Amino acid sequence: MQAIIVRDRDAGPAGMSLTDIPYPHAAENDVIVRVHAAGFTRGELDWPATWTDRAGRDRTPSVPGHELSGVVVELGYGTTGLSVGQRVFGLADWTRDGSLAEYTAVEARNLAPLPADIDHTLAAALPVSGLTAWQGLFDHGHLTTGQTVLIHGAAGGVGSIAVQLAREAGARVIGTGRAPDRDRALALGVHTFIDPQTEKLEDAGEVDVVLDVIGGDILDRSAALVRPGGTLVTVVEPPRVRPEDGRAVFFVVEPDRARLTGLAGRVRDGRLAPVVGAVRPLTEALAAFAPGKHGPGRTIIRVTEE
């Protein structure tokens, strides 16, 4: 089968190639998924898990990409809850070969059933961004109705979903981003938009929750905006500056079948719309990883036609 593989940790996207690799093995409690669409994070070539397994052993060449939508074609020993021929979407394990391949092995518990009326391309844009937004806002930030949340990167993959979820929860939403993102963020539902390059971040005032996907100076400055009892949440790095009278949380998104099912239900009902940008075939995945400017929305790789 064909897949994108990475061999050289120091080469970046230049060390990737499209090649034939063996069909995956379905271990206990696994399923084999024929991948129809896949999502990826450009920074994942810097993640240790891309290069080593859970025991710290080298596992190159490895297949990147961790979001997928497709159809179950094989069940491993002891697998329950899913069936052959079922449409599914979810997350591939961080320390195993990922989704930029025609077939991939995934723990069944990391996948959720995909309704027939949701396109694979749309579904592949949902797992990382949707689960990150939900877990950041509610599981870690404990955001509730009537509170104020500051969402950095409000027009991005995670931020755009977080804005919609926060609005649905009845929160007041302040979003940040670059000037070209202003109209898009306002259309998603932010009440106030701030461009930190030209406006004062501190004008946001006190907030109950900060959801950060940027890190660095923006993360440091955000700590002072958290009101007493509030929470600073980030997925980038452990916070160096903590709120004076609040919590600071750094987390890595975790698979959650029940939450994926809930997010898919919101998509079906029209309450949630993942922002999909370019859709490229697997043969163009290398270009999609290349550094430089990319258009709005998640880039999705179409691996197999339905």
Description:
- By secondary structure, the protein is α/β, with parallel strands linked by helices.
- Helix content is 21%, strand content 27%.
- It is built from 7 helices and 15 strands.
- The chain has helices at 120-124, 127-140, 157-168, 182-188, 216-222, 257-269, 285-289, and strands spanning 2-6, 16-20, 30-39, 67-75, 87-91, 103-107, 111-113, 148-151, 172-176, 192-194, 207-212, 226-234, 247-250, 276-281, 298-302.
- The strands form 3 sheets. Strands 3, 4, 5, 6, 7, 14 and 15 form a 7-stranded mixed sheet that branches.
- β14 (276-281), α7 and β15 (298-302) form a beta-alpha-beta unit.
- α2 packs across α3.
- The longest helix is centred in the middle third of the chain and has 14 residues, at 127-140.
- It is globular, with a radius of gyration of 19 Å.
- The protein starts with a strand and ends with a strand.
The percentage of residues in β strands lies in: 25-35%
Shape descriptor: globular
Rounded mean pLDDT score: 94
Terminal CA distance reads 17 Å
Helix content: 10-25%
Low-confidence segments, given as residue ranges, are: none
Structural class: alpha/beta
Q: Main β-sheet: number of strands, strand sense, barrel status?
A: 7 strands, mixed
Please outline the helices and strands.
Blueprint: E1 2-6, E2 16-20, E3 30-39, E4 67-75, E5 87-91, E6 103-107, E7 111-113, H1 120-124, H2 127-140, E8 148-151, H3 157-168, E9 172-176, H4 182-188, E10 192-194, E11 207-212, H5 216-222, E12 226-234, E13 247-250, H6 257-269, E14 276-281, H7 285-289, E15 298-302
Parallel strand pairs: 8-9, 8-11, 9-10, 11-12, 12-13, 14-15
Antiparallel strand pairs: 1-2, 3-4, 3-6, 3-15, 4-5, 5-7
